[in-house]
Design brief:
The chain has 1 helix and 9 strands; from the N terminus they run αβββββββββ. With about 100 residues, it is α+β, with helices and mostly antiparallel strands. It has one domain: Cupredoxins -  blue copper proteins (Immunoglobulin-like). The strands form 2 sheets. A 5-stranded mixed beta sheet has the order 3-9-8-5-6, with no helix packed on it. It has a 4-stranded mixed beta sheet with strand order 2-1-4-7. The termini are far apart. The relative contact order is 0.24.
């Protein structure tokens, strides 16, 4: 009974965490989706999956993040809480095609 109570007590934390997780896929040297809308003033988790056969670097000056994602692999990046606004990001190795923005509102 104590175990069930603990699980029910923790359930809102799991639901809340899942609500603030966003997936970005790199394929053909492009981010998909190119625009993500997230809640302002909340911590979020980005899961970035690179489906290309070459590495890519997720970079954002406004988010102060720079992370290499190996070929056919994934990483997690934790952000926030973010102030309302636009936060552009790009792929350092494919700047012409790998572009995106996170919009906090």
């Amino acid at each position: 009974m104590k175990k069930l109570f603990f699980i029910l007590l923790m359930l809102p934390l799991y639901v809340s965490a899942a609500e603030n997780e966003y997936i970005i896929v790199i394929q053909n040297h492009q981010f998909q989706p190119t625009e993500i809308i997230v809640p302002a003033a909340k911590k979020i988790k980005l899961l970035i999956e690179n489906k290309d056969a070459t590495p890519e670097e997720f970079e954002s000056y406004s988010l102060n993040r720079e992370k290499i994602i190996g070929a056919n692999s994934a990483i997690k990046i934790y952000l926030g809480p973010l102030a309302p606004g636009r936060y552009p990001f790009f792929g350092e190795f494919n700047k012409a095609t790998a572009q995106g923005v996170i919009i906090a509102q």
